Amino acid sequence: MKNKSPLPIYTSQSDPDGKLLAQPSDISIRKHKVNTQFARNVYIETYGCQMNVSDSELMAGILTQAGHHTVANIDEADVILLNTCAIRENAETKVINRLEHLNHRKRREGNLIIGVCGCMAQHLRDKLLEAAPYVDLVMGPDAYRNLPMALNAVASGDPFLGLQLDKSEDYADIAPIRKEGIRAWLTIQRGCDKMCTFCIVPFVRGRERSLPLKLLTDDVQRLVDEGFKEIVLLGQTVNSYHDGDNDFGELLWRIAEVDGVERVRFTSPHPADATDSMIDAMENCPQVCKQLHLPLQSGSTQVLQRMRRTYTAEQYRDLVSKIRDRIPQIAISTDVIVGFCEETEKDFKQTYNLMEEIRFDSAFMFKYSDRDGTLANKMLPDDVPEEEKARRLNEIISLQEKISGEINQSKIGTTVPVLVEGDSRRDSDQYHGKTDTFKTTVFPKDNAQVGDIVNVKIQSATAHTLIGDIVT
Ligand code: 5AD
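Above: inputs. Below: predicted complex with 5'-deoxyadenosine.
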């Protein structure tokens, strides 16, 4: 039975003027009331980047603090929250399909609560309820504090929208609940101020804010005490970190100094913020891994200008040379977009040639996806045909596979320290782990334990994996 009358949409207590909240709309929703019960079993399903993984841990912390339980088995859940991504269209399509599937269960069970959280929620706002009217809760990345309140509110049968962006929200006081393991993700910065024209992130995650250094080093001490060995610092442009007193290089040193930290990594830095302070810490601090993910996006200076990346292809090339001079063993990976607005064959060839010249260890490669609300969407034509985008993507994927394969082959015969992470997916007699340079390595267990750093002699390699044996 559909209700066509305007619905009250619950808003957040922490948004006194309500400016950025969706207004009540005439979206038709609600067929029944959800059972009210205090402690709920919540299953959180995460899509997209590591920042979302980290946000899901935060959501679990907020819910647990309020007396709810997070469950690992979706069948036990009476609340399912999808923590979503908006970066490319297919990320959103995937979630819409998943919602359709979950709605079958909701129809069967009646009292299942379905929530869409994160970037896609913030991007589509109340339009999400038009596409999926059975969704109970739509919540953006700065509104997670309201989750417990929202779960109570939706029990009355009305949907909850929490869509305020809040520059002061850093969740500094919330203890995330992490999966056990050896690697902990630590958000050091939220939001983004860069305004790359292709990117939806600043619009769905708001302005950049950094957490105070002292709070982060205390967090790291706790993580080490819990048994984590490797800390991965997260931020949209992680190396623009500045807490008012300390820059990113200083932060790397202070975190590495925490007693018991074996390894420190970070993702993703912006080339324009790759300062000497950052490079110094990478070069001289033994715990900081010799691995850098440095998004290039395009090898054409003209395209980079249209993307507002704030560097030229030459500056990027020089930066890589400088880093490699200082840290010869470093592994560098990247992100590349093909088929951005008005990208010509010549622009594309420049990207191809620069990738061939730089020889990245690995790359994430994408077809440009026009996103509603971005600067490119407003100002530039998405004029490279889909088949052409696909052709360009396939070309650079083949190139990169070849290069990654060759680089990995060159490691055969060398011995590399590997942090043991757990059983290999294919063979429980083998472990998998990562080298300092973030290469996945597989090897027989011997007597090693998860969390050990072992020396592995590489015997063979594919483009994605090193295979070897522990040596003493
Ligand atoms: N289309 C395609 N790829 C994109 N990325 C960001 N926005 C888009 C878009 N609109 C890619 C960039 C970024 C990575 C996380 O996702 O390469 O570095």
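Residues 300 and 346 are 8 Å apart (CA to CA).
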